[in-house]
Amino acid sequence: MTSRTAGDGPGVTSRTAGDGPGVTGRTARRGLVAEVKVAGRRRGRGSGWYAYLFVGPSLLGVIAFLLLPMLIVLVLSLFDWELLSSPEFVGFDNYRRLAGDGQAWHSLGVTVAYVLLCIPLQTVLALALALLLNQRIKGVRFYRSLFVVPWMATPIVLALIWNWIFDPRDGAINSALAVVGVTGPDWLSDPTWALPAVALVSIWQYTGYNMLFFLAGLQGIPKELHDAAETDGATSAQRFWRVTLPLLNPTMFFVSVTNLIGAFQVFDTVFAMTDGGPSHTTEVLNFRIYQTAFKEFDFGYAATLSTLLFVIIFLVTTAQVRFFGKRTTYDLS
């Protein structure tokens, strides 16, 4: 004999004393769980179309402003088009031209050099700032905001300001060097210093922005882990390398991927500061694409260069995903 208990769902019964073989409490609980799962699946099938109302606007944006332009560029790379004339299909001639284009590969080399100058130093400085500003120091909120200010300014405006700072005669850097008896170079006109100077501006602009992500990652690490490591006798350096840094892998993954994509696509800083000079030493691939399309009016070949840039970014990003995928833990529970 069975009786329904208060609060039981449909069909949930409890066994009373003296009952014969029947539905036990454990079986009842299993039945309830099964009913809840079935009800959940029914609700999911019935209201699933609501999800498309929320995903739809973003999905349309991705299609209209990402996938469709990529498809257009890929198709355009198979044509010879000078904007004012009708497109002429040339097949893979543009790609064969690319294989022997020394200037394009030079621009790619400059881009890689720029990435190598920016990403490691920018990442290390951002992490160091995050560690410093994660301490309980007076005015820490003000300092956090201060370091993010450069990221909020437009690159063109910053480039104009830094043009004055790098000015060989009246610039702030050479004026400071003159005080200690050092003659500074002509930063933006010297083939040796032009690319490092442009990279320095980007590092200065984005270090504070990346610091915010590392700071959020640091604050997401449970304090108990550091306390346990300290109790076991771990030094500050050991706690950083064996506790903090491994648990920052998700943040490091995000920062590395987004920074690398942005560095490969640099254009406005180069355009405003050096215009690709001197002697093409700062002519990154994105700037070469601009020159080909809007100064030489060779849109088909510019699309081919854009495809090359996309393929390189895709391959490097895929390599990063595989590298961090095996080393990243998202669940700290």
Write the layout of secondary structure elements.
Layout: E1 2-3, E2 14-15, H1 25-47, H2 49-76, E3 79-80, E4 88-89, H3 93-99, H4 102-133, H5 140-152, H6 155-165, H7 172-179, H8 194-219, H9 223-231, H10 236-247, H11 249-264, H12 268-273, H13 285-294, H14 299-325
Antiparallel strand pairs: 1-2, 3-4
Helix pairs in contact: 2-14, 4-8, 4-11, 4-13, 5-8, 8-11, 9-10, 11-14, 13-14
What does this structure look like?
With 333 residues, this protein is mainly alpha-helical. The chain is built from 14 helices and four strands. The strands form two sheets. A two-stranded antiparallel sheet has the order 1-2. The N terminus is likely disordered.
Q: Which strand order do you get reading across the main beta sheet?
A: 1-2
Helix fraction, binned, reads: 55-70%
Mean pLDDT: 85
The global form is globular
Q: What is the alpha-carbon Rg in Å?
A: 30 Å
Largest sheet: 2 strands, antiparallel
Structural class: mainly alpha
